[in-house]
Design a protein that fits this description.
five-stranded mixed sheet; eight-stranded mixed sheet; globular; homodimer
Chain lengths: 408, 408
């Protein structure tokens, strides 16, 4: 299943994740917002880095989102550091919350000796509870003291909430000027849905990229990665994806180098987005919904998202039940035009529905495929050449258990 | 909680449900599609009845939906009988499925001595499996033999699938011409969502209503009842709500009587719709989402539906957790304009969020309210006079268990 290849993900030692690229140091420490796990992440660029970010489309936006927008505008899209806390979203916290987010940036800048508008801040956790900013600020010197080019693994742990594992990705690109690296980390779990940005993700590169070029590349690649992932249909107040380009490799991204950079950035973001889907709350498997043969790509995307969002489809796949009727029914209510009698559906590489509602397959063979860690679902509408791929996970009773008991 | 009043629902003896109105007989029998439960329902009007129906908006429409449309057009919206089977949806079954649905109508007509186009047919159950129409047809004489004006309880059992109980409702209306009755039955459980019609529901009345008038009343009242219920966001291939008006009371619905009729029909449909939400697969409680203070009613409806559809809200309410942050976040991603700092949220009658993100309440007191069978959630946006009410249920681990194991 080449489409679900995950090379470069899950390396856990050495210069990985956001410290894979030269010129970045990071640290993860415990500041006391969460009981015992790492909950404060600090990422620092040696020099001024071009910065770009996309934010949640939720009308309710957490305080750090407002601060990031202000700082990117004030700095002309240049950043030196990112401070992230887990365990508290600092959302729906009013003017005090905004002050706490600003203070986080100001104190980070003071400890590092940079300007406040060069600091991005992010939070994840429970909504509506005041951020214990004193604890966070008190731990910043410790975090700064632990900054290391080997800190990529620890920092990727410090941004997690109900995630069961850290999520990192990396791509190396060789050019006539030399080679550069793009590395990243993400957190996900609940509240994942494509309306941007669906999660927290931070990517660094030692390529030399102008802020406007970086911004364009990020927006286009997020569209095909994090905007194609759905866990439960909810979109958070805090989501953001940010990328910092420090330039330490000396490779300038312009002209003919642009395409390779955008491809590699897209690969890193897609790896991270798929890891987010795979680690959805309570998930036991990654599901790839590949809709082909639609009239347009947009129709294919509408249908793929509706199938990926169907609780009945996600529970059937959790039960390894080849219930193609639920997939056809989800496509039918998507709003995009379909001719049901032309549809074909294959699960795990086995056709379970042919044209004209012809269905003959080995239940045991399909069940074995559906019980694997990665399940490709291919729906062909037989109408045109429109295509879209989205990723989701199965829906388990554990999803309910996690979310019925955890105020997040 | 007057809004959640359920007078008239769940009576289980005598002339109830679709046989509460004079002039209707019904029977429920076992024809062998399901293992042992009643699975064939027959409803008959003594004379020609005005008939109106609304159908699923899913592009994939089951064979009986096609047959009903044809028959209502051919008969000029007059019906004598309705035949319903449970255990098989007769959807995605191709030309053979359409022939099976037509044969069901033809054989029902033959047994009853009426015309085929005066018979409506409906199916519910697994998609994509050929309807065992021979068994169904073989049981029609038995069903006809059991027809009774006391058959309302049995027939309401015979249309169920994963429902845990029958759903019936009734209203009596007194007029200067005499009194008339509106009674109905419904089935629901999974695949419930407002895009019409979200379930099967059948309503009868002994009022005398012209077909066009009945059609208008049904469309308007469905909009405020079944279109305001959501269990899991899926819309079935088979959904329909049908109403038959036989006229045995002699009360003509025209002029000043129209408003009272429409109100009573709306009440019956709302009772049934709320029973469907209450009995959602795995549900432990009925949740009423009442959004007020929106700029327009349409905005209020958009927000109420997004909250009702949020898995994070539904799991929190399952856990009796006063997690207002998830409600605010759902409102924020609805697409309708909101000013989050103006929002208030009350759960079970207790305010948990005041303006300006002020939140101070007794967790124990709210938990006690959230553990009740019916939970009103009131969200006030503080922006205008737009309002909408929708009903849903909590999301439990049992929902997953039911849907991961049952091919429906």
């Amino acid at each position: 299943m080449a489409d679900l290849e995950t090379t470069g993900v899950r390396a856990t030692t050495g210069a990985v994740g956001v410290t894979a690229a030269r010129g970045f140091r990071a640290a993860g420490v415990h500041c006391g917002i969460r009981r015992s796990r790492l909950d404060l992440a600090l990422l620092v660029s040696e020099g001024p880095a071009s910065a770009a970010a996309v934010f949640t489309t939720n009308t309710v936006q957490a305080a750090p989102i407002h601060v990031c927008r202000e700082h990117l505008a004030a700095s002309g899209r240049v950043a030196r550091a990112v401070t992230v806390n887990a365990g508290n979203a600092n959302a729906c916290t009013g003017p005090e919350g905004l002050a706490a987010a600003r203070r986080t940036a100001v104190e980070t800048a003071r400890v590092l000796g940079v300007r406040a508008e060069e600091v991005l801040v992010a939070s994840t956790g429970v909504i509506g509870v005041p951020l214990p900013v004193d604890r966070l600020v008190a731990a910043l010197p410790e975090a700064a003291g632990k900054l290391s080019p080997e800190g990529g693994a620890a920092v990727s742990e410090a941004i997690l909430t109900t995630d069961t594992r850290a999520k990192i990705a990396r791509r190396d690109v060789a050019t006539p000027q030399g080679s550069y690296v793009i590395g990243g980390m993400a957190k996900g779990s609940g509240m994942i849905h494509p309306s941007m940005a669906t999660t927290l993700a931070f990517v660094t590169t030692d390529a030399d990229v102008a802020p406007d070029v970086l911004d364009g590349c990020l927006r286009r690649t997020v569209e095909k990665s994090f905007h194609r992932v759905s866990v439960d249909g909810d979109t958070s107040t805090n989501d953001m994806v940010a990328v910092l380009a420090g330039g330490a490799s000396g490779v300038a991204i312009e002209g003919t180098e642009l395409a390779a950079f955008e491809t590699a950035l897209g690969d890193v973001l897609t790896d991270l987005a798929k890891e987010v889907a795979r680690d959805g709350e309570g998930a036991t498997r990654l599901i790839e919904i590949d809709v082909r043969g639609a009239v347009t790509d947009e129709d294919a995307l509408t249908i793929a998202r509706t199938i990926a969002g169907s609780l009945l489809v996600k529970t059937a796949l959790h039960g390894a039940d080849a219930n193609w009727g639920r997939i056809v029914a989800a496509a039918g209510r998507s709003g995009a035009p379909i001719a049901p009698e032309k549809m074909t559906v294959s699960l795990g590489g086995i056709e379970v529905l042919g044209p004209g509602f012809r269905s003959a397959f080995s239940e045991d063979a399909v069940r074995e495929r559906l019980e694997r860690d990665e399940v490709p679902v291919v729906v062909d509408l037989g109408a045109g050449s429109g295509r879209a791929v989205v990723w989701t996970c199965d829906l388990s009773a554990d999803y309910v258990r996690i979310n019925a008991s955890y105020r997040s």
